[in-house]
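Problem: given the chain below (132 residues), write out its structure.
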Amino acid sequence: MSTMTDPIADFLTRIRNASKAGHASLRVPRSKVKLELAKVLKSEGFIEGYIDSTEGHGNVKVFLRYDAKAKGIIRGIERVSKPSRRVYVGRNDIPNVRNGLGVAILTTPKGIITGKQAKTAGVGGEVICYIW
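Solution.
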């Protein structure tokens, strides 16, 4: 049996694939980081919502969002910081994703937040991913 080295990349890939396939929702194994990511994706309007289920090993059910033409709201997700290569930014170097059309998601001392929130809070951190 193989062990998963990057559960966050797996989470993002599952969302990307389910969105492209037109699924209404998907389930992922539960973790605090994934719950926080789902919270940010919901607040930024990329997903409809999520349900945290703790029965058994626990999972998170994510409800995807689509536009009027049934095209996924999420056009792209890119993992930035990987276990093999961590990417950290200072508060002055927070990247602008797709000229402001995308969102950078960072893990900071203030929790998992968007690049915009990190700039406002004046903190840097590890860049988890870009989403647009």
